[in-house]
Amino acid sequence: MIVQGAIKLDPFSRKVFVNSNLVSLRNKEFSLMEYLLRNAGRVVSRTQILEEVWDRNIFCPTNTVDVHVSSLRRKLNGLMQRKKYEQFTQLGTCLSDNYRISHYFDKSNKTFSLLDWQKLFIISFVNITPHFMDNVSLAETVNDLPELVSNLLLLLSDKEKLVVKKRFALDGFKKTTLESIGSDFSVTRERVRQIEKNALSKMKRNVFNTALRHIHDFAADAVRSHGGLLREDLVGHDMKKVLPDSFNVDPSCLHLAMVLHEDLDCVGNTINFHPYVRLRDLPDYSLKFASEKMVNQLHKYGNVKSLDKIHRDMKDIFAEISFDIPKTKSLINIDKRMTLLEDELVGLLEWRHIHPRTLRDKILYILRAEKKPMHFSSIAEMIEAAGFDSRRINLQAVHNELIRHEQFVLIGRGIYALDEWGYEKGTVGAVIKRVLEEFGELSQDEIVKKVLDKRQVKKITIVLALKNNDMFERVGRKRYKLKA
After folding, report:
1. What's the domain count of the chain?
2. Burial status of residue 229 (CB atoms within 10 A of its CB: 0-12, 13-18, 19 or more)
3. Are residues 166 and 254 in the same domain?
4. Cα–Cα separations (whole angstroms), residue 198 to 26, 127, 157, 162, 177
5. Chain centre to alpha carbon of residue 306
6. What is the model's pLDDT at position 60?
7. For position 55, what pLDDT does the model report?
8. How confident is the model at residue 379, as a pLDDT?
9. Looking at residue 75, what is its pLDDT?
10. Computed over its alpha carbons, how large is the radius of gyration of the chain?
């Protein structure tokens, strides 16, 4: 008899008991369970499991292990009597290409739970909070998401199933238009729309019976935390933050799961808005109204302004439609015309100093962002790193652009600044001449200081330039003026 927590396995009678309850397992499930229990405390890979539990001479795809582990988990978890809101101590680890018995014991009565995760992590003797257990449930649901969606599709007719798969890009299908599907079925696009609507209604009536409720809870909480409005891709982004790094959230399945949520509306891509999710009690007209007013206000400003200032200047409008700062920030994120800089400044993407298009715009953007002179090679590297668009950056093209436009001033060997910063073109001698024309007779130190404010050169270069007797006249101990 092999005993591990609440699990007892008898290898001779080939029976498994959990909390004295007999568990019905198929032959391979029993062999897998026995192998994992015999290796409790050790991490074993899929390959090792295939070699030990399956016939080494027969090829099996590695997802065979995943399928059997998933089946084991479903059969065992219902009998574990896990107390979700009590403190637990974790005494195990698990990881992606590997599986391991992971123990969760309640300190008072040592109830046991079996889980498998997809990332290696080790937490010893820690308290498992309700929030942690919610993330465990979410992780299990995300792991089984394609399977959960497939099970819901079993409720549909063949035609409904195909329409949903094509409309939501499931099972390898590309997202297909109503018109294209109608052409395949020889029906109108309106008829396809009706088929899709009926199919989704069937799925909605049954979705509460599935583990998708964990995704629904997370998505609804994420949307509420952003003021009741959130760009759809950010739901998946927020979800990944609480999952192990190796987890991949299927975007098509996640989108369908959110469409089936009774309290959320998923709005597709439009001219002015990215795809977004909103609470159903948030009126659609208020989003369009608020976004138009904000765009008009930014046009009046003519430049970026802080989110706080915009909200203050538009307080009467925002109060009318109950838009607080979080909701306003979410509105900016879904609007294709606006952008949020450094999480506090709002601008319009049509402004070139906000969303540079030409190479000259990008050079200006980098120099203004860095607020200091830079070598042309560093400017090129930063443009490449910024990823403004998919265009490749050519070092010589950047240098040529800096040479061509007067607003870029060469102030040192390959180093450029903006003329708006007070830097001047010309040789060091020409800069000294302009300084003396403006200030008159100066000492050598004063001249050096004023030239260095306009050019990045070595001090000795300035001193040597003062030796030009055709341009400058020495009038005392290290004092100079322009030669008459």
Report:
1. 6
2. buried
3. no
4. 38, 46, 11, 13, 17
5. 24
6. 61
7. 67
8. 94
9. 77
10. 34
> Looking at residue 468, what is its pLDDT?
85
Tokens in use for 470?
Answer: 């055709």
Output the six-digit token pair for 371: 């607020």
20 inside domain: yes
**Contact 453/422 with Cβ under 8 angstroms?**
yes
Does the residue 15 lie in any domain? yes
What the block records as the tokens of 54 is: 């399956």
pLDDT < 50 regions, the chain: 81-133
Task: Give every CB contact of residue 65 below 8 A, 6+ residues apart in sequence.
Answer: 32, 46, 49, 50, 99
Note down the domain range covering 178. Answer: 145-207
* Domain identity same for 368 and 272: no
3-class SS letters over the chain: CEEECCEEEECCCCEEEECCEEECCCHHHHHHHHHHHHCCCCCEEHHHHHHHHCCCCCCCCCHHHHHHHHHHHHHHHCCCCCCCCCCEEECCEEECCEECCCEEEECCCCCCCECCCCCCEECCCCECCHHHHHHHHHHHHHHCHHHHHHHHHCCCCHHHHHHHHHHCCCCCCCCCCHHHHHHHHCCCHHHHHHHHHHHHHHHHHHHCCCCHHHHHHHHHHHHHHCCCEEEHHHHHHHHHHCCCCCCCCCHHHHHHHHHCCCCEEEECCCCCECCEEEECCCCHHHHHHHHHHHHHHHHHHCCCEEHHHHHHHCHHHHHHCCCCHHHHHHHHHHECCEEEECCCEEEECCCCCCCCCCHHHHHHHHHHHHCCCEEHHHHHHHHHHHCCCCCCCCHHHHHHHHHHCCCEEEEECCEEEEHHHCCCCCCHHHHHHHHHHHHCCEEHHHHHHHHHCCCCCCHHHHHHHCCCCCCEEEEECCEEEECC
Model-level pTM greater than 0.85?
Answer: no
Judge if 69 and 114 occupy the same domain: yes
Query: Are residues 12 and 98 both part of a single domain?
Result: yes
Identity of the amino acid at 38: R
Within 10 A of 339 (CB to CB), how many other CB atoms are there?
Answer: 17
- Residue 98, both tokens: 């590997």
CATH number at residue 199: 1.10.10.10
In angstroms, the CA 444 to CA 448 distance is 6
